Amino acid sequence: MLKNFNWKSALYILVIAFILLYPWLGASSYNKHLFILFFIWSIVAANWNLMMGYAGINSLGNIGFMAIGGYTAGILAKSFGIPPLLTVPIAGLVTSLVVTLALGLPALRLSGIYIALLTLIFADTLPSLLTQTREITGGAMGLHEIPPFYPGMDKTGAYYICFVFFLIVLGIIYRVIHSPTGMAFVALRDSENFAYCLGVNKFRERLKVFALSSLLTGAAGGMYVHALGDISPTTLGIEPFLLTIAMIELGGVGTFFGPILGAAVIVFGNEFLRLAGTLRLTLLGALICTIILFYPGGVIQLFHSLEHQIERLLKRKPSTS
Amino acid sequence: MFATKDISKSFGKLTALSNVSFEVEEGEIFGIAGPNGAGKSTLFNVITGVYAPTSGKIFFRGKDITNFKPDQICHLGIARTFQIPTAFHTLTVYDNLRVGAIFGAKRPESADEVLELLGLQEVRHRPARNLDLYTTKLVMLGAALATDCKLLMLDEPMAGLSMVEINNFLEIVRHINQEKGITIIIIEHLLDILISLTKRMLILSDGQVLYLGDSAGVAEDRRVVEVYLGGKGGVGHARH
Q1: Could you give the ipTM of this predicted complex?
Q2: Which of A114, A223, A313, B64 falls between 20 and 30 A from B211, CA-CA?
Q3: Would you say residue A10 lies in a domain?
Q4: pLDDT number for residue A306
């Protein structure tokens, strides 16, 4: 019995059970709000990591994908009265189409740092585009009072809907990573020419990364606006951008759980540090630097070393009995 | 089976290859030698589509494959290894072979066949970054073989190996050629190894064909001796 006990799966079940039960354990509306942010930013970070960590495409434009999805869903719901069940998938598809055609195709003619620059420029053009199209997008004010997932939705409803979305998207990413497509992403990252000469169509596989990552990030943008009710060009500002990059770096680049752990640390840590007022970002930066200094592989590396120690302890027991 | 016709390749003003023509017969092991910078690896890169040739044509089994992309060339049955030991260092040995099997051969089971052929079962779950040089080279060779290639191009596969490892590797190359019927083009610095391994060879110097013909006749060719074995202007690579 004990031999088959896997403490890791037990931990996953515990965490999921806790998240499921949390609203019943007297969670405040504010804490539920934090969890919603955690679910959505995890998705954004995980998809960004799929591009940057797994496929080695140094995109800096993923917040732009989220904004496109968010605005698409928001406009569809607000101006056209389309139900959120449809706006979220449409937001994903629109984002994927725009990003793959307008950004993916030209970006894949470049390499390395130039992809980073192009994707950054892409995201950077969006705020001025938004302020120029005030009639539809609300300009610098953004969109407000975007309809929730269903009329009369409370925080608990949004919490569970976002949690389900979080599980679905992470499930998709997990499957992709462990599929031949995921193997091709990593192969192209590790050695582009070798993969190319082994029959991997590098253009097609990398276009798939753009399409998939922007699809899921755009959908996450849609979830964001229906869960929180508004979006404005500040979403495209420097702080969300850096914080999401920090989630990936802090959690562990190129690992499945890394960005999720990173998102947890940043979202909850960022709110916790609000007590520190203006020093908030400074302290967050110090925290990131400290973790990276001792665990350059991120929080996930800390977990792995803990895992080894627990396994050593578990192994020692049977020999004494 | 395979031929190039007047292949030239320039990088700006630098001419890396000029008018290189040669043919390879079905089932043979064909050697390519030449001093550093002679254009051997560039020739491989042009053949496998990594670079487009500036002029000239490449034929494989009667088909003009000039300007094909590397993945297309792989799908036609040409696989290669690289001079710098290359593997997907974060993937396991088995997954390295699977890349070739799934994307090159579109036949996943070929990874298992190659694993057995090269005796890599014991390290199959090990990440490629934790391998010694010889095993890394076997993995690179294995991934290429897993594509079900008809023509295998090896770029200095024995550089940096010990004598024992070189002999093991040569045995594998002969085995692949004889038992699997795979045609091989091999670049190698050491002329005596090439002479014993191949019947015919090409020697490049400054991007031009210096010698093309029987391997046995190489040592007697005056120009080869001069350029390659350390006569005037020789750089002394092939000291034995």
Answers
A1: 0.90
A2: B64
A3: no
A4: 87
